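Can't paste images in this forum, so I'm doing it all in text. The chain is below; anyone willing to post the predicted structure tokens underneath?
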Amino acid sequence: MYGNNRWNTTYDYKKALVLPVAVFLCFLLFFIVGSSRASQAAEKETLKHLESAVMQATVQCYAIEGVYPPDVAYLETHYGIQIDEDSYVVHYEAFASNILPTVFVIQK
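Text version of the structure:
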């Protein structure tokens, strides 16, 4: 009867905070890793989209004018392609005016 006094118990707050802090840190870690992976996936998708846009403009130029454009600057001027040159490098290799050029995009 006297050994189990609920009014005189001491509560250890440090032990009580260990589990919630650990759970919070785990959630924080998962959030950081997840956002990093989402950012990487978005960058890959942007590269694909830019490469596809350049290729579509190239084919459109060939359909309208009968020749492939000589360079990317021609596509920017006449077909409205916008390239963030601070972030991406577009490799555009035109062999001849009647052969489809090689196009690929690299992130700086």
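The chain has one domain: 13-107. Residues 13-107 form one domain.
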